[in-house]
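G., before I forget:
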Amino acid sequence: MRILVGTVFLLALAGSAVAQEADKIFPFDYRVVELENGFKAYLVNAGAPGQIAYVSMVRTGSRDEVEEGKTGFAHFFEHMMFRGTEKYPNFDSVTASMGAARNAFTSNDMTVYYEVAPSEYLATLVDLESDRFMNLSYAEPDFRTEAGAVLGEYQQGARSPFRYLSEAVRTTAFDAHTYRHTTIGFEADVRAMPEGYEYSINFHRRFYRPENVVLVLVGDFDYGEAERLITEHYSEWETGYQAPDIPVEPEQNRARRRTVEYPGRTLPVLSINYKGPAWSATDRTTVALEVLGQVAFGSTSDLYNELVVRDRKVQYLNAGFGLARDPSLVSITTMVMDPREVNTVEARIMQTVGRFKTDLVDEQVLADTKSNMKYDFLMGLETAQQIAFSMIGYVINTGSIETVEDYYRTLDAVTAEDVRTAAQQWLVDSGKTTVTMVQRRGR
Amino acid sequence: MMKKLALLPALLLVVGACEPAVEGTVTLREADSPFIAFDVWVKAGSQNDPAGKEGLAALTANLLSDGSTTQDSYDDIRAKLYPMAAGYGYDVDKEMTVFRGRIHRDNLEAYYELFRNSILSPAWSEADFERVKSQTMNFLERTRRYGRDEELSKELLFWMAYQGTPYVHPEEGYVQSVASITLDDVKQFYADYYLAGNVVVGIGGGYPRGFVQQVRADFDALPAGEVAQPPAPQPNMPDGVKVLIVEKDVDATAISLGFPTALKRGHEDFWPMVAMNSWFGEHRESFSHLYQVIRETRGMNYGDYSYIEAYPRGYTTQVPPTNVSRRSQLFEIWIRPISSTAPGNLHDRTLFATRAAWRELKLLVDNGMTEETLADTKQFLRNYALNWGQTISRRLGYAVDDTFYGMDPGYLREIRPALDRLTLDQVNAAIRRHLQVDNMWVVFITADAQAMKRKLLSGVATPITYAGEKPAELLAEDELIASFPIPVQEDDITIIGIEEVFEGN
């Protein structure tokens, strides 16, 4: 089934944007600015009048923390980016005077900085952002102060059951790759952060380089002016990105299992994980694996209807089949109502895994899933910020937004056989890690 | 190049519908939008929960939103929504229940039928009821107590201030009260409150002409009638300082403090206090003065903010919630968790941060804002507020709230001119009228509650140390903060264990 999303959007967005060709999913016209130093900016006129979203995507995250004792540093460094430069010693006061919404976030593969501001501040924003990416400078006492804020951030989520589970899954499933640790980092490393000033300066020098950063500017602005400003301000940025030597995860050759105790009250949580491939926009089996997650374990799957709705054996059933820049995990997570039924629930999940290795997925279910994935993308394109954020995955995984079209073309081509192949190839025991989180005894 | 519609950003414009107004509706037609948003407001909330059945309004909405209808089973509903990548949800606050939906206009017809049926034609399936009740019980018994201490501390602040009023209990109810709710209770609540005259239908975005009339006619199929609201609650102003300490095994302490105010939207001091609060504690913004004092300068935690209107689940969002309209509000300070395992004496950092916020409040009450801070705030907020109406769903949510408060022009349209008109005298007069520092409800969720109690009663200074060098000026100010008085008596401190929190009435 080929859904006419492109044409639909020609009509739907008439008047608010110039649509691209009818067979493209990204419904907006855009321009690309590429500088000699490798810096790339995508310019998209879309969203509400009078506003812009200025989103700088750094292709560095906790994945790049290869040194011992430095987990959590990419996130900590994100905080330091708000500590000013010689030209703008008080970053926050500049964005406050614009009334800009500004923030940043870090995850495995990325650090993303954004401002949403009135269009009249475009020139100021280009100057402010290019300046801090090129000329960040902060004193050691400020660095130490900020480390306190990061410890606070660590601690306010430290007792979250999801953090416990995530740490347990990662440390069990990975031996070498940096996906072994969470983005917030290990507690000991977070506590040692105040001593890492020199390392932080180096971090900026190694990763915050034009070849490793992509700007996505969405909103109401003049293309020519934006192109001129960006060229003027980012061209002087010196190259010098040093790709980290990320350890390759050795092939797992047998199933792993672990039980962890949560020091609060919880029903048992069962997490079944498989080593998956790296994200791809063009490999059909890889995209089919993401489809498989939805059809086998998603919120309209037979298993969901059975376990969550009909038999009410579990509180929820989540399929985490989104892939990452490097080979990572796909996960099935569920909270079991009766602690005595954990094994039964696990058996039902494993039977479902088995079924998708032998049976072909129903054609209508496959078509509905493709439709779901497309509308999910399109429903998220309302504001300038949302439109810019919708491009993050493509930029981080591949360095360009053009791959969004490849991805949805591949999705269109996925067949029921591809979904079965994905199950046979990736949902295998030798790549499996099962973690059960239970309430600590005595509670 | 896109069209420039107007100088005033459209995000603050409530685009007037060209069609005649339909009674019982709030409409925001934006004909070019590919999206249609719904915000169906039922004039009933947790304040309408019967005694002993606290949580009933929320469970009712939950069942409607996540249950079967007489037309479709819950499985079929989800299967039909799935290819549209759409869903709908509910929110229950003290005074209002809302059902929200959003759809791409390709799918409006099929979607609307499901959305409408969920509210108008529930199947009242026992299995659905058991499922949503069990999920709620899990939240009450486990997640609420072990998920986010900072959110729990805020809920406890409201629980203290609203004792003896219909606002007292959290919207989700207590463990024991929800355990006692039956499907018949839910049906009765629905029969009592889901009446044609008690429901306002909000619709926004690119819906077709005639659609509003169609929707309203559908909702008019509900039994006629309107329910008179109970009188607005009279919250309790504490006589002095009243402290609740929740004992829990934690590494960081959650802190909330506040007191009732007479302020709500439409009050003549509302906009002056919006400006005050933006400067003093803008939510999750470094512009917040409290943030500057506690986090930016001293690195004590992740953030520090203040509120003049209820702001549930603030940790999940940077924009104010819609449809939390209330006839009574607190002034509230949120100090994000303070480490109790960082170097120093146990609880000293917690009490230092609490004293720092309290002292800043006193400085504000004593000295007011200055021409400079007010000018900075106006400059900041007139643009920052643009972020609050970014989506059609949010603009519609604001419009529904405007109807609740009888605000015309509405919040988003009025905020800029209102800020432009403000004078320093107005702001400082409002501060003197609504803020004070002597009477305060205070909540801590912390380890070793008895030690905290002893330290509070002793009145000893609670100094902190830093990992790095600090200027002498700052250290001098720290001395004042560390010994800032928190006048509290033994009888004014209550300690409870985490397992007792919201267990029963």
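The radius of gyration of chain A is 23 Å. The domain at 35-234 of chain A is CATH 3.30.830.10 (Cytochrome Bc1 Complex; Chain A, domain 1).

More on Monday.
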